[in-house]
Amino acid sequence: MDKLLIRGGRPLHGEVLISGAKNAALPELCAALLSAQPVTLHNVPRLQDVATMLKLIRNMGVTAERDDNGTVTLNAGALNNPEAPYELVKTMRASVLALGPLLARFGHAKVSLPGGCAIGSRPVDQHIKGLQAMGAVITVENGYMNASLPEGWKRLKGAHITTDMVTVTGTENFLMAAALAEGETVLENAAMEPEITDLAEMLIKMGARISGHGTSRITIEGVEALHGCEHAVVADRIEAGTFLCAVAATGGEAFLRHGRADHLSAVIDKLLEAGAQVQTEEGGIRVRSQGRLKAQSFRTTEYPGFPTDMQAQFMALNLVAEGPSMVTETIFENRFMHVNEMMRLGARITTDGRVATVEGGAPLSGATVMATDLRASASLVIAGLVAKGETLVDRIYHLDRGYDRMEAKLRGLGADIERVSQ
Ligand code: EPZ
């Protein structure tokens, strides 16, 4: 099992390339299932989750070729097995994104329930509710969702869908299903993340008729069929935010090429309040910090609020900033697993339900810590970059799921970090 060995205390300097967004690439690979014509995706990040998704759709009969500079060409023309089996779905919850496209194009699909994951139970009841509103007949048995159309139906039918809470992949499933449904679908309470907007723009290139994406009310006019397209995956705002926190926490200066400051305003506002300098420049974001910052309280909410996927990383910054801070996690019920590991580095944090109280300024010293989920592992890397001495981050397969060669990028910024294999 690979680990990351970090020797902390070095400021970060230089330029880093921000990759395509994991949480846009995954739904966009599924969007290719909607068409019998070839789809080309550029700027696809090199991640374990992308490799898993390619395995999943190849298993359905889709041809998918990936070249060395992030371009994936897909052809779902010969797709003959609209199934997502448990052994693939259990490692990646985003496999549920195959459900909407398969049902919309083939009229039936069999997708394993994703099961929970470290940060929470992660149900898919809203996905099921919305697709049922479009006419889908969905039974759940033996851990699988079996979806089909009512007798005599050729296509799903447009519907008015209001989910009980904002769901990112739920909104994405509905967008893809509605694109081929008969009639109009209106999504109220839709997610507004930039990855939703990017998916909608790709679907529009395929011939879908969508408006309102990026707002909480999206309207889709279904069409009979979608053609192929060429699309470049939007830059990863969470990877960019992670690097912003790493540079701010260690001190130094860096340029994040392709970073989109307009997708990170809630995080950048907090970094500016903390005393870091962050500005948009041609082609990216520049961040500068002397390292001594003022800790910032924040609460995670849906976009455009402070992203839950940045909670652990900003907490790592708060550890080394001055003063107390309160971090409130409103999206997931169990997203503080990084706290115990941070305490092994000397952090002083108490948690009460969804609120963590961080005492800033505690001197951190290196230790062996264990990654528990994707963003927690990134936060431990940031803490290790600041801690005195050596930090060994174990179970970094979590990191590899969602970050494209992070240690190489950090080494490029001057960090003393290397991957060691057991
Ligand atoms: C997406 O997950 C992201 N994953 C997550 O990123 C991200 O943390 C999350 O959105 C919130 O922004 C991908 O896009 C692949 P939700 P998703 O449905 O869609 C509850 C990362 O680190 N809910 O928006 O699964 C749910 O339990 C990952 O890259 C239901 O109850 O999240 C949660 O409390 C982690 N029933 C809340 O809604 C449902 O049917 C928001 O979940 C669906 C969701």
UniProtKB/TrEMBL annotation:
A Pfam family matched in the record: EPSP_synthase
UniProt keyword annotations, A-Z: Cell cycle, Cell division, Cell shape, Cell wall biogenesis/degradation, Cytoplasm, Peptidoglycan synthesis, Pyruvate, Transferase
InterPro entries, alphabetized: Enolpyruvate_Tfrase_dom, Enolpyruvate_Tfrase_sf, MurA_subfamily, RNA3'P_cycl/enolpyr_Trfase_a/b, UDP_GlcNAc_COvinyl_MurA
Localization (cell): Cytoplasm
Domain of life: Bacteria
Domain (Enolpyruvate transferase): residue spans on this chain: 7-410
Chief localisation class: cytoplasm
Catalytic reactions of this protein: phosphoenolpyruvate + UDP-N-acetyl-alpha-D-glucosamine = UDP-N-acetyl-3-O-(1-carboxyvinyl)-alpha-D-glucosamine + phosphate
Annotated UDP-N-acetyl-alpha-D-glucosamine binding sites: 93, 122-126, 309, 331
Gene Ontology molecular-function annotations: UDP-N-acetylglucosamine 1-carboxyvinyltransferase activity
Pathway per the UniProt entry: Cell wall biogenesis; peptidoglycan biosynthesis
Active-site feature positions: 117 (proton donor)
Residues with 2-(S-cysteinyl)pyruvic acid O-phosphothioketal modification: 117
Coiled-coil region(s): none
Statement: the UniProt record of this protein carries the keyword Cell cycle: yes
Binding site for phosphoenolpyruvate: 22-23
Enzyme Commission numbers on file: 2.5.1.7
Known function: Cell wall formation. Adds enolpyruvyl to UDP-N-acetylglucosamine.
The family this protein is said to belong to: Belongs to the EPSP synthase family. MurA subfamily.
Classification via HAMAP family: MurA
Name of the protein described by the UniProt record: UDP-N-acetylglucosamine 1-carboxyvinyltransferase
Originating species: Comamonas avium
Name of the encoding gene: murA
